[in-house]
Amino acid sequence: MKRVCREEARAGKTIGLVPTMGYWHEGHLSLIRAARKRCQVLVVSVFVNPTQFGPQEDYRQYPRDLSRDIRSAKAEGVDYLFHPSVEEMYPQGFKTEVEVRELRDKLCGRSRPGHFKGVATVVLKLFSIIRPDVAFFGQKDAQQAVIIKRMIDDLDLDVELVIMPIVREEDGLAMSSRNLYLHPEERRAATILYKSLQKARELVLGGERRASVIISHMKQMIEEEPLARIDYISLTNAENLQEVDIIEDKVLIALAVFIGKTRLIDNLLLDVSGA
Ligand code: PAF
User: 186, 191, 206, 246: which has the fewest Cβ within 10 Å?
Assistant: First the structure.
């Protein structure tokens, strides 16, 4: 992969990278299509990264279907599909980890300690192997996007970051590989995340600026859904992820909710400056 990418770079081509854990859905395809339009060489990685899963999490059962991804890669005009093994990425004796302090501890970091260390480490490795000019990530993993941006700036990496909007099912549920875990009843209940964000948007558009009021409306809605259990609901500054009391400028409204045993996340970015 390194040799191929260096040759493409020497030929003066723009390299785009879409890092994924495979089992592509329309969300992944939107990144792949944006990258295809923008870059001369398109590399998509498929690697279910063990270091970003906690010991009690779903690393083993995480959905995988490489043949299906390969078929989609061909249909979408992907130039290279990079599918390293765990042993290649983390050979014996591997010792280095990337910590993006403070940002890693907020939002999802509270219930998933170590998750963002795993993400930052594997993404830096992918950047080092592929040396992309542009890398594409989804807004659904809002905290991941903020952390990667911080890492790129802090470590002076020569990568442009493109964050693509959340892709949703018709009823608003954000696309996620984990939606596959939902039983039909849970699938119906899962729309509560999006509905609560719509409620938040409505309140903000109606002039509400107090985070506590918005959170309590969202909380009440979600608690009315018997299959849902809130992990967190948070209103933060969109860039540094600091919680806000009063909304000003750009706010990230983010939440994580268990639907049955499945933990789902969703978010909404709002800019109230000049609204
Ligand atoms: O967003 C994901 O799918 C993963 O966190 C990523 C960026 C591919 C790193 O494993």
Answer: 206
